[in-house]
Amino acid sequence: MGMNRILDIGMSGLFSASSAMQTASHNIANVNTAGFSRQSVMIGTRSPLQLTYGMLGGGADVLGVRRLTDMFLVSRMRDQGSVLAQNEQVDFALGEVETLMGLATGNHIGTAIDEFFASWSELASPPVTAELRTDVLNKGVMLASSLNATSAGLDELARQMDTQIENTVTMLNMMLDGVAELNQQILLAEGPGDTANDLRDRRDQLLAEISVLAKVDVAERGDGTIDVILSGRTVVVCGEAQHLELSRDRDGLTQLSTGNRRFPFELGAGQLAGLLEGRDDKIIGSRDQLDAVAKELIDRLNALHVQGQTPGGSGLMFFSGTTAGTIAVNAELVARPEMVAVSRTGLSGDTDIAREIAGLGQQDPIDGDRTISAIFGEMLTGIAADAAGTRLQVESQRQVVDALTSRLESVRGVSLDEEAANLARYQNAYLASAKVVAAAQDMFDTVLQMI
Fold it and tell me: Mind listing the pLDDT tens digit for each residue in 160-200?
């Protein structure tokens, strides 16, 4: 009985040390695996043997393999990573808007506005010549072309964002399918008291990648599966995932749905929310502001120009169109520059219309209306301030994410030095247990020789 007990204890030591060495090796092999949480073998003593003189130890048992992580930090990482991803997308959109507006390389529209009204100022100084009228038309064509190009650039940027939104939704749907599949695998792999550590790591990593695209909430069930909740709606339950679909409302803004169930427009955070905000609020919003500037220019300048008289008759509309994308100099004026009006009387030396038009861009009118240059300048100032604020948010949020990453890695990250030390410790324990087994074997042999 005693020799069997010794052999059994030795074998339990061999198995425990071997399991610990295998786990340490697994940690070392996955030192560079994204989302991997280091694992630790939990070893406990076996029930002792009760004798009249006391209890004799029965060896060791492997109680389980523990996954070393901090789910609170994991959840915080998902939430803060979503906010960072959203801010980065909005920052990108604003950066592209700044580039199109020329804020980084020179304010081309502002320059065109100044040159256009400067040409009217020169036209207002007699004598009025054909060359000065032609210069006004040329500067008007340049201004209209600059507005057209910027509007077209914003529209193209919005289309590119549309494509990225569609790709992001497709990727998000694939990831939700992946979570549902891992739910099924975990459900099948985990029995009473068992934990599928590697599968759970893969699921957490997939959730981290999903949270970059869209802010998600997670609820774990008693069977080890999780529900994934997006914008208040459950999109993954056990092995079933609902796909997101894109649509547009009457204003052209992006809506998300799952089948016939509409999502709230506010996704909370994430790259997808940033793309939607960047497209609808920043890009389309900037185009709408530019349209407003163009309409103000068209309406106010035309209102003055039609009051003029020229040798060819009453003044014509100087600009056609209603937006930055459609503004153009009246083709009839381009064909007949003499129709550019400079006065209400048409008399030589009278340039009251030209002076008033020049004042639209160069000085505040008496009635207190802002100049076209001031309106456009305020627009650029707003975009620049918005971009600067967003960049500050990105930097601040990146520091939060970096701090959380560092804290989480200190908990779950693999230390090669620590694992190497563990390997040496478990190897020594294995060798010592092997000696116990060998000693028990020698005792058996001695007894057999005595028989």
Answer: 998 898 899 899 999 999 999 999 999 888 777 678 889 99
| Whole-number pLDDT of residue 363 | 55
Beta-strand ranges (E) seen in 19-173 are 39-45, 49-51, 54-56, 60-67
- Closest by CA to 271, choosing from 79, 88, 96, is 88
Sheet bearing 216-220, strands edge to edge: 216-220, 226-230, 233-237, 240-241
Please list the residues that pair with 237 across neighbouring strands: 227, 240
Name the residue ranges covered by the structural domains of the chain: 2-68+414-450, 75-400
- Which are the contacts of 65, defined by CB distance < 8 A and separation ≥ 6? 19, 23, 39, 40, 41, 42, 195, 197
The beta-carbon contacts of 233-238 under 8 Å, at least 24 apart in sequence, are 233/258, 233/261, 233/263, 235/176, 236/176, 236/179, 236/180, 236/183, 238/180, 238/183, 238/184, 238/187
- pTM attached to this predicted model: 0.83
Candidates 122, 125, 120, 149; CA nearest to 137 is: 120
Residue-wise pLDDT tens digits, 187-237: 888 777 678 889 999 999 999 999 999 899 899 888 888 999 887 788 888
Band of pLDDT at residue 110, cut at 50, 70 and 90: confident
Q: What is the DSSP letter of 87?
A: H
Per the DSSP assignment, residues forming a β-bridge with 40 are 66
